[in-house]
Amino acid sequence: xxxxxxxxxxxxxxxxxxxxxxxxxxxxxxxxxxxxxxxxxxxxxxxxxxxxxxxxxxxxxxxxxxxxxxxxxxxxxxxxxxxxxxxxxxxxxxxxxxxxxxxxxxxxxxxxxxxxxxxxxxxxxxxxxxxxxxxxxxxxxxxxxxxxxxxxxxxxxxxxxxxxxxxxxxxxxxxxxxxxxxxxxxxxxxxxxxxxxxxxxxxxxxxxxxxxxxxxxxxxxxxxxxxxxxxxxxxxxxxxxxxxxxxxxxxxxxxxxxxxxxxxxxxxxxxxxxxxxxxxxxxxxxxxxxxxxxxxxxxxxxxxxxxxxxxxxxxxxxxxxxxxxxxxxxxxxxxxxxxxxxxxxxxxxxxxxxxxxxxxxxxxxxxxxxxxxxxxxxxxxxxxxxxxxxxxxxxxxxxxxxxxxxxxxxxxxxxxxxxxxxxx
Length: 424
Hints:
This protein is α/β, with parallel strands linked by helices and 424 residues long. It has a domain at 8-233 and 404-420: 3-Layer(aba) Sandwich (Rossmann fold), CATH 3.40.50. It has 14 helices and nine strands. Helix 1 (18-25) crosses helix 14 and helix 2 crosses helix 3 (59-66). The chain has a seven-stranded mixed β-sheet with strand order 3-2-1-4-5-7-6, sandwiched between helices.
């Protein structure tokens, strides 16, 4: 199914496919996605079905799936089996790499790999993760997954690679991990440049700081763009991603399918989030306790009336149940609709929504799956799967929080295409 045109990539530690989504939109071709989480792999398969059906003029079948008219098994039956097999549900490591290589090679069919993208799980490098670990995550095996990444570079010899991770990688182990990465990648034949990128500069309505390592073969001299200082022409406010969605309360909403309440706006069109698509899914919110709802109302009132964030210690004693009163005092936080970017959407949103309170006090809830996806710049036609047939709200939140914003990825992919294949 691999075509001659278009740069070809492998996505390692793919998650739900946020990084690869941007590359696919920019015209690259996916050879394989490798991911250990089963729910995320189902999301990747569903997205593979979307791209195949769209490219073959059969998007109506995908729309039928989003409307609940056909099952996931029905949807997958419409897609060539080899495409679905390109999603490899295995952990990357010395015990499984042989099986993964075999699956990738079957997809390649002797076609060369232009690019490897992806980033290992970041908890071991993140400042928050190290702070919560008794030994600062020094013995966490995820610290060394970059070694596995290097094995894939050696095996497939791409022209370039894109390694995405948290800023904490710079300081993890007092910088020793990043230094060791550079030495190992050089040993495998690749030089690197490290960028610190801000998602809001790429049109994403979210303050998200990430480390971007661009690597290239030593015999290839790239003219790299200045990813640090890139500034997208796409802009808006957080309210733009909330404006057209139906009003729902805690525990409310529908998975498949609802109607938009108003017409689209410029941000939704320019960022490709809605973009003439009129099927709304996964606008579902988690239930909240009565105590949480009382706190949410206080937090929203403070922000909407005074632009002031709630400090946990300012709550009355009957509303304070956490013993920790010295740190994370901003654990209840409103997604402010009048700002140009929200605070970072992280995987913890899968555990509770206290850090992501909807700004409409009448709805009195945390943000829905679709609202979280939009803040991460996932388009509305992107559907997040669970392990079983029915979508799982927790699994969706986790995938969204761990993802690379597709809009940022698209801008990066577009610039790298000019590096890999300079226009005359």
